[in-house]
Amino acid sequence: MNATAPAAHGAGSAGAGGSAAEIRLEGVSKVYADGTVGVAELDLTFAAGELTVLVGPSGCGKTTTMKMINRLIEPTTGRILLDGEDVTRVDPDRLRRRIGYVIQSVGLFPHQSVRANVATVPRLLGWDKARIRARVDELLETVGLDPVAHGDRYPAQLSGGQRQRAGVARALAADPAVLLMDEPFSAVDPVVRERLQSEFLRLQEAVGKTIVFVTHDIEEAVRIGDRIAVMSAGGHVEQFATPAELLGRPANAFVADFVGADRGLKRLAVTGIDTADLEQPPFVHVDDGLTDARAAMAGSGARWAVVLDGAEHLHGWLSAERATGSGTVGAAARRMKAWVPADATLKTAFATMLQHEAGWVAVLDGDRFLGVLTPESLHAALRRSVEGTGPETAGAV
Fold first, then answer.
1. Domains along the chain with CATH numbers
2. How confident is the model at residue 15 (pLDDT cuts 50, 70, 90)?
3. Calpha distance 335→27 (Å, rounded)
4. Quick one: residue 130, left, alpha or beta (phi over 0 = left, psi -120 to 50 = alpha)?
5. Distant-in-sequence, close-in-space partners of 348: CB < 8 Å, separation ≥ 6
6. What is the DSSP letter of 19?
7. 140-145, long-range: CB < 8 A, 24+ apart
8. Gap between the Cα atoms of 157 and 353, Å rounded
9. pLDDT in tens, 142-190
């Protein structure tokens, strides 16, 4: 399969360190001595600065594909180009010093302190001690480890999540353009895993590396990936697409089955709120009289209205049942609990709606009220996002 990825809209910049690098696989395969095909002839491009996830069932060749990039496994055929340079023709040890590598079991040296572990590659590259120390302190802080509190500890003295952070810091120590990650968060509990994913996304936003990330978990792939390659047995790529495209338009029955029948719900997590999808209910101001509020609701046929202050900021909401008498809107208004920021996803909006048992959720830009999402408009927004990716397909979300 020929899969070339254009730059994703969410890809980070190269940050303060080395630039990201494009990785291109041309006709790459791995065939073992007994004739078993680990990876079929693969044409695949990982765009510079993107986080690409390889996902699929066990034995589909995703880890083999990743390990061929830094030649921990030698390809049988094909070329692997790192910013145009064929890495199958360079010294593998020198190559690996240019590529960060994080594995499930972290792989920290147990007899060395965290600081010494992180400094491994800079030492091999001959950096001076002052430069190494500054870089180690910088990275430990970046991944959320206090250099003073954790730098002199040994791996056994750290929690699982802390060891993973130290492993990421070590992989980034020499500022590689490429980072390979083989199921790095699968060995920790779900709560820590979600926290690590969030912190890793924050880190990637800052450093903008080219990352190849292997996982068997489609939920993780959808959450963190700029693009996802779904692989099947024999190392075939069935689809290479953004999370939204993958969930909205599975390429075939294999992909549809792998991403799951609940792909519509998964898609909520990767679909942002578009202001064009917001409804505009009647609104009144805190200083208005209840008589005016009743008239506004009656004129629109609504049973409630949004309450704004003098700066057009959200103050609360008012139901028709409370809009009685001759007082002011502000005295009768209720606090608005169901709201989300404008940069939230549809999943967050839906979860907020359910949490507060609300029939709608307000969307805010800072304090400024933009509109509301109802179950109907939320569903319409999801449908529209799917329809925008291509022609209608039977069975799509």
1. 2-98+176-268 (3.40.50.300), 275-383 (3.10.580.10)
2. very low
3. 61
4. alpha
5. 340
6. P
7. 140/114, 140/115, 140/166, 140/169, 142/169, 142/172, 142/203, 142/206, 143/168, 143/169, 143/199, 143/203, 144/199, 145/114, 145/169
8. 42
9. 888 888 989 899 988 988 888 888 888 888 888 888 989 888 887 677 7
